[in-house]
Fold Urease accessory protein UreF.
Amino acid sequence: MSRAALLLLADGRFPAGGYAHSGGVEAAVAHKAVHDIDSLEAFCRGRLHTTGLTTAGLAAAAAAGCDPLMLDDAADARTPVPALRAVARKLGRQMMRAACATFPSAELDRLAAERPQGAHQPIVQGLAARAAGLTPQDAACAAAYETVGGPATAAVRLLSLDPLDASRLLARLSVETDTVAAAAADAAARVATEGPDALPTASAPLLDITGEQHAAWTIRLFAS
């Protein structure tokens, strides 16, 4: 197991396309729900414990060796909004290219062949973690961190926030991020006996609604 591989997977510079997506914060800024560092922290915390927990569970299950096609179907069921399903698969395609180049794996190759239009991003992320020799909890940690790191970085650009404040925000959320990752990994460990229903199903309906609205905008800074 390489901790450096975990850092690489969680790095915003990993060429998987995440930098072009705001994680819903662009729409939240437009609706005035996020307007300063405190409201951004509330947004990130809510996203972490809903979308973050769900995606971290999927990533952990993929890293644990669960059937990725089954998990991809489970991800579809947990992503009811067409716009966000399309985003998840687009990010999955982009991560697949980066993952195959960085952590070559027969499992990644098989998933790419089975899902040529792209698998859901956390499934690919989990398989990349598995190929890198990381644990399911490592995969969950990377996925959970991404659900807050992406919006925090995007908000700095959207609101001209101080990047140091955004970094402090992520530091304050670090213990909660670890807790979410541990819960996700525990759920993933039960998939072998309980099936995909063991995985978290936490959702954020307002993010679903604004995600669909955002997809219809003609002018936007971020793809989602």
About this structure: The mean pLDDT is 94. The CA atoms of residues 21 and 224 lie 5 Å apart. The chain is about 70% helix and 0% strand. The two ends are 33 Å apart (CA to CA).
